[in-house]
Structure formats: C-alpha cells, structure tokens
Amino acid sequence: MIAVVRSELYRSLSIRSSWLSLVGFAFMAALFGWFSKELWSLFAGLGAFGIAVTVTAQHYQHRTGVLVFLNHPHRWRVLIAQCVSAAVLGTLVAAVSGVAVLLDESAAHYRSTVLVAPVMAVFGTLCTIVVPHPMWLLGGVFAWLLFAEVLINRMANGLPFAAFSLASGGNVKALLVLLAWTAAAIPIAVWAIHRDLSGD
Questions:
Q1: Are 86 and 57 in contact (CB under 8 A)?
Q2: pLDDT digits (tens, 9 = 90+) for 54-75
Q3: Rg of the chain over CA atoms, in angstroms?
Q4: Helical spans, DSSP H, in 65-152
C-alpha cells in the first residue's frame, strides 16, 4: 500500500500538468486570500478539488490506467492511493496559498481550511473515478457551483462546496455534511473503478 501511494505521489509530482495545476490553483487561491479569508477558503477548496481531478484523470488521459491496474490488480488499493496523494496535494495547495490569511492574523480560519481541504480532495478523486474526463467533470462542477449552490441554494449548508466553505470557518455541522457527501461517493467510485478500460 505504501509503495502504491509513493508511486502515485511520484507520478503526480513528475508530470508537468500536475505542477502547472498546483501552481495555478495555489496562485488563484492566494490572490483571493488578499481580499477575503472566505473567498480564499472557497478557492482553496476548489483548488483541492481541481488538483484531485487533474492528478486522478491523468491515468485516463495518458492511457496508463490499464497498465496501473495490471500492475496492481486490487483496484481498491489504487483508489486509496489516489485519495491519499490527492489529499496530500490538496493540503499543500491550501497551506501554501493561505499565507495572506495567516498574516492577517486569522490563524483559526487558516487551520480549519487546511484541515478540511483533504476531504474536498478525496471527494474530487472519487468524482473523477466516476467521470474520468476532466473537462466534462470540471465543466459540470462549475455549472453545479454556479447554478445549484450559488443561485439556487445561496451557498447555504447542504451541498458539498457550500459545506466546505462553512466547514472552513469552523462549522462542525457543515463538516459532517461534507463528510456525508464524500462517504456517499465512495460506493459509486468503488463500482466505477472496476469498469473495463481495454477499449479506452
């Protein structure tokens, strides 16, 4: 299991698109951190989700998924390794991009966001296993965020990104909602990871 996690982290950090995504998401979140700690939290969560999508979808984009599953026939191990590596990278993005919030003496908010970011990264990994095309998934998430969470739900608790935003402020109930969304995605991802990739 440790070897699979190590190989996933090495692969994630050795591909140029991963580095560009890490830097891009961290820069965007840091930029918003100068204006508002709440905006930083939201973009740190989106960054953790986006990094997870980018890193996990690379197996499908570069057609290496079949080789990975031939090398590791227990696909649940690969799924766990992808979740762990995405959580590490998502935490890294949140921690690095929140320097402005930390300098603004909002240490509690910074700490809450960094602690919740891995949950959003795991949620992003699970979603990517179900929808392995990153452009489709990110486009769908953008539409979901804009219409379902902002316009209809008005970022109230109950939906995943709103729950992340509230949990990053220390709301325990919102954290439980985010954990429930993540837990609900696990059986779907476990089912989806066993799909036949030989035709891809």
A1: no
A2: 888 887 777 777 777 777 778 8
A3: 16
A4: 65-71, 75-97, 99-103, 107-130, 134-143
CA–CA separation, 22 vs 36, rounded Å?
21
Q: What is the model's pTM?
A: 0.85
DSSP 195: S
22-56 burial, b at 16+ Cβ within 10 Å, e below that, comes to beebbebbbebbeeebbbbbbbbbbbbbbbbbbbb
Q: What angle do CA 185, 88, 171 make, to 5 degrees?
A: 60
11, pLDDT greater than 70: no
End-to-end CA distance of the chain: 26
Burial of 79 (0-12, 13-18, 19+ CB in 10 A): buried
| Nearest CA among 150, 25, 159 for reference residue 98 | 25
pLDDT at position 164: 92
The CA angle 86-80-134, to the nearest 5 degrees, is 50
Placement of tokens 């109950």 in the chain = 158
